[in-house]
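Reading a protein record of the kind used here takes only a little practice. Each token is a code from a learned vocabulary of local backbone shapes. With that in mind, consider the following protein and its fold in token form:
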Amino acid sequence: MQIDLNCDLGESYGIYKIGSDQAMMPLVSSVNIACGFHGGDPNTMAETVEIALQYGKAMGAHPGYQDLNGFGRRNMDIKATEVSNLITYQVGALEAFVRSAGGKLRHVKPHGALYNQAAVDFTLADAIVRAIKKLNPQLILYGLSGSELCKAGKQQGLKVVQEAFIDRRYKEDGTLTPRDHDQAVIHDPEEALQQALSIIENKAVQTIEGIWIPLEAESLCLHGDNIKAVDLAEFLHRKLLEKNIMILPPSI
């Protein structure tokens, strides 16, 4: 049995330090690197790519809304052409850093509000997918399991990896509980492990309402900006391996 463990990294910019990229890198199999709009900057992008290459991690672009102040977590209403340009600009920039360092960009995972809106808005999802396909149809698309984003990706012929979250609680409709809810984020390692195992072994998750819903995923996400991210990652990495669950990126 195997699972991909992915993490959002490279989100520091300027004088602002976000997350512990160096400590997280060896504990995951895939990394989603910020592209400068919600977090990250040219220096951070280059440094994160170099670290990922050193550890042999699968690298992906993590484009978001142009919203540093809101960390890309504020909903926006923009035209399809603007969405396409936003994706092209950010993914293209990161791909340039990856190629110049001798690596290969493997996947794209939208960030924050862009990700969550695309999960329920097919028009937005389709604009994202078409932009990725024009750039490189070989790129893998990461999206919320069962979402409109995954649906759009499959319709356009992209390889789609459905992901689930082990440090976030779900709602009954399969979407993530908004972060302004005091129980939205899971900080306890044991609770995160149990959620991960229920998804891997039973293809189900218990919602914040206490109801079990089906949930299939090829990748599990752990947020790098979670205050207990490293502790969670170390605990999960150890426990999954103890259960003979290999941590590997999805096959191409």
Q: What stands out?
A: The first strand starts at residue 2 and ends at 9. The helical segments are 21-24, 42-55, 80-100, 112-120, 122-135, 148-155, 189-202, 229-242. The chain has eight helices and ten strands.
